[in-house]
Amino acid sequence: AEVSQGHISVVLLGATGDLAKKYLWQGLFELYMDQVSSGHSFTFHGAALTALEPGQRLMFDVLKKLACPPDESPNRCAVLKDQFLKLSQYHQLKTAENYTALNREIETLLRQEGLKEAGRIFYFSVPPFAYTEIARHINSSCRPPPGAWLRVVLEKPFGHDLESAQQLAAELASFFREEEMYRVDHYLGKQAVAHILPFRDQNRQFLDSIWNRHHIVLKETVDAKGRTSFYEQYGVIRDVLQNHLTEALMFLTMELPANVSRAEEVLQCKLQAFQSLRGLEKKSAVLGQYQAYASQVQEELQKAQDYISTTPTFAGVLIHSDSLRWEGVPFLLTSGKALDERVGYVRVLFKNRAYCTQSETLRDAGHSQCKAKQIIFYIGHGALNAPAVLVSKNLFRPIMPEGSWREVVGQSDLYIFGQPLSDYYVYSPVKERDAYSILISNIYRGRKDFFITTENLLASWKFWTPLLNSISHQPLRLYPGGVENQHLLDFEMVSGEVAFTLAEPVDDYRTIQSKFRQSPLVSAWSEDLISQLASDIEKTASRTVAHSGQFHLALSGGSSPVVLFQRLARHHYAFPWRYTHIWLVDERCVPLTDAESNFFNLHNHLLQSVRVPYFNVHPMPVHLNQRLCVEEDKGTEMYAKEIVALVANASFDLVLLGVGTDGHTASLFPQSENGLEGAQTVVLTESPVKPHQRMSLSLPLINRARQVFVLVLGKGKHDITTLLSRVGHQPRKWPVSGVSPSSGQLVWYVDYEALLG
User: Can you give the residue ranges of the Glucosamine/galactosamine-6-phosphate isomerase domain (predicted)?
Assistant: First the structure.
């Protein structure tokens, strides 16, 4: 963004805090050195809650230690540092009057110096709970006049989950416009990360056909000592994966915009990439905690000796995207504290389809197609101890921007991912810069594509929050820390899930087998129960296909089966879909493309991911002659005839049912006039909740099935489960009590929450 010449006031809130001391003042000093001749004038206002004199003393102790970049001449640097100190002053910002006084001071200075105001930057290096009050003060008494811009810089954490992020975003939106807010993820300032998109853009000709498999890793040797109050609230996923590593993932997976320099296009492509990510489940992650963490928490937070922390300090997460480009490609995000080394990298590992007859020792790295093919964006630390981009020589020689990256020649005997450095083309930045100095420079330039928008932030939390909720009480693998971890944290991908390679002994009796209403009962925690149910459906399908050549499966609507559909789609690759006919147990009288439609949900969560022949899918004909469920259209008769024509003896191989809190099943409700008895096999019914009109298989037809599985999930179903365990056959009161296959088997799948409350 081109900025008009004029005066810029930079206000650093939290000016004496750790982040300011380590990075922000240095970044502001480097901005001043770079821009001192740009035609802008600057003043720098450090602010905190500390009173004037002690605050001033603390701040100037930091400013005196500011370092000169190595490529800067000592004389020029000394002059500029002296000027920077003179242009910096400390303010106590505690009350509304303090903000009014700061505004008055800025206006007075501009008037005295005869300067035009270009804009103001407010950098919030303070805890998020302070954001709202500070935002209110800035908005009411510290905004620049019309014609000058305002840029408000916010540091993470931006919320704890989707709900808290939405609340914080709404509060800030009442004071600032979206274009005024710059949410910092300092990883976007890391030179290797920032170069992912330009690299993809400049090397489109090589990459378009091969972009393939990814690992994104941030390893730390340090532990959480000294910051357990923060860490205990957030843990490794919120601290690193939800923000830093997710942003790197977006740069890898998003479709390239026509112009990678246009912030709006980049942000739009990022959002589309978020929307393609497949939802995470508990088994998408492996979690650990270093052994000393619990005692550090007890000591620093004064917790009792028996306090058990469930906060992970290590996580490995497997992510999939459902976009056409990334179908079947795994993305691994990994981060942890107290590991064997400190390193960060984004590694793209390409599939290798070559077979080489030449012995390995005779293979030339530049030409052998049998050596690993990879592109690595090396963020820093580790063996290289600097940012770098590495491309295997058997891939291509990359195009790199000459002014900012240079090829590293005269390579050492280092090995990176099992290969000598000489196997790669290696590039490093011409000038190595700290992430914060790059981001501060981009704030000055108004480059929004280096920052997190509200939409982007909420999309990320929407993706991560379900996983965070599902693992909140999951047992963690304890690890000693450092090199002693050995193989304890190694993990592998198995059938779309991740699991530690070295297994811990587990209880084999995760599911309880007993009786419910005189029929077999399978009970477990919901995730294990769904896993068991999916396996049982697959076994039934395989057995039936082997016996009769096809499998007729009737599926219910509602929310309970969604997790089952997802499980079948992602983990049951041996399922005989080719020989399976899919029928619906019930349907809402809405168009099949409506989000309320059972078929729409079935399609979204299962059918679009598996290879069921088109002619084997049988949606209920609720939408005929451009109207919904009208008796004269004879939709129920059509479906009944289709069943008779295709299903032997109109006897489904397996019917999956759910149970409502009122005891309804399929779309057969208490006191239903149709479907509980009689000769009709497909009926129209009325639901007490919208949409009221439904089409449903009748109870007599359901009872002709060879097998009926009833799935009951969640605490909300505990009361009806308890009631059903006590009542007899009373389908007019509780339709599900009438489910009793005449010559088949009924099995109940009830999770512990529904069974035990």
Answer: 526-748
